[in-house]
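Hi P.,

Sorry for the delay on this. The queue was packed all week, but I finally got your sequence through. Input first:
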Amino acid sequence: MIYGLYLSAAGVQTNSYRQDVISNNIANAETVGFKRDLALFQQRRTEAQDRGTPGASNATLEALGGGVFAYPTQVDSSQGDSETTGNNLDAAIEGKGFFTVNDHGTTHLTRDGRFLVNRAGHLALANAEGQEVMDEKGRPITLDPKIPGSQTAIGRYGEVTQAGKLVGKLKLVDVPDYSKLQKRGGTLMSYADPGELQPSKAVLHSGFVERANVEPATELTQLMDAQRQLEANANMIRYQDTTLGRLVNDVGKIS
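Then the structure:
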């Protein structure tokens, strides 16, 4: 009976974790460049299986398994829809790839293509932190503030021009293993081994941004499913607790 409590408790924990992941996806459904997280799980082996002594346990309990545990989340890298902005400095990535930005001396990746010119005259993200966007040599892209924004453009392959003159080229990179991406807040991500970053074959669309790849209706359906599973496991804990209480109190009196 105690074994059943452990299984139900694991079910409550994993579905609570699943709810948190899905809720975060829904909250960022309108965040430009956001990539939804996938709540993954793995089956836990029984203690007897881990020790290599399956015969030492009850066969019925062994058939129940060891429950389910949460697995580290992974990033869903699927393409989001493009949305027009009419801003020449905005760019949406079509295909696999990321912009590279300098975040306090650390190279981070992002799909957020909302750019502006900061006080230093460098191309930067249009967010609260304003991380500077890097060129192919890992340097900031400097723009002439005297040239109006209408004469500034971002080309299909990342070429940044002002009045028809090339002033820099955005560094677009891709990663060989998307499971190694780690979110760092906002729309920034890091890769476990920066040395494995490789040039991206993606193309850019100026005047557009990439919307989050979150489908609210689908996420809400999954959220309700997680809530039902959490409630079912919580009810199982209550049923087993009641049964244990009767075993201790009622059976004890009869004997």
